[in-house]
Amino acid sequence: MSQCCHGQCSMPTVEQMFAMVDTDKNGSISFEELAAFMESIGQCCSREQGQEMFNMVDTNKDGSIDFEEFKALMVEKAKHDSQ
C-alpha cells in the first residue's frame, strides 16, 4: 500500500487510507467495510472482536466511523507503533 515516486516510498496518507476503507464512498466507514478491509490486509479476527474494536473507534456512537474518528485511531496507532 505504499506509493513510490522516484525511488522514494511513502505510506498512504490518512485521507487515502480512509478512502480505501470507505468503499461505498459515503463519507463514513461501516462495520462491514472495516471488517472487509481488515480481512483484506490479513488482520482477521472474530466478529465479536471486530465489533469491539469498531465500537471503541466509533466514539460518538452513531454506528459508523467518520473521518475524524478514523484519524484519531491512526494517530494512536502511530504513537503505539513508534514505541
TrEMBL record:
Molecular function terms from GO: calcium ion binding
Record key words, sorted: Calcium, Metal-binding, Repeat
UniProt-listed Gene3D superfamilies: EF-hand
Gene Ontology CC entries for this record: organelle
Residue ranges of domain EF-hand in the record: 9-44, 45-80
Pfam family membership, one: EF-hand_7
CDD domains named in the record: EFh (cd00051)
SUPFAM superfamilies xrefs: EF-hand
InterPro entries: EF-hand-dom_pair, EF_Hand_1_Ca_BS, EF_hand_dom, EF_hand_pair_protein_CML-like
Keyword Nucleus included in the entry's annotation: no
Residues in the signal sequence: none
Classification via PANTHER family: EF-HAND CALCIUM-BINDING DOMAIN CONTAINING PROTEIN
Name of the featured protein: Probable calcium-binding protein
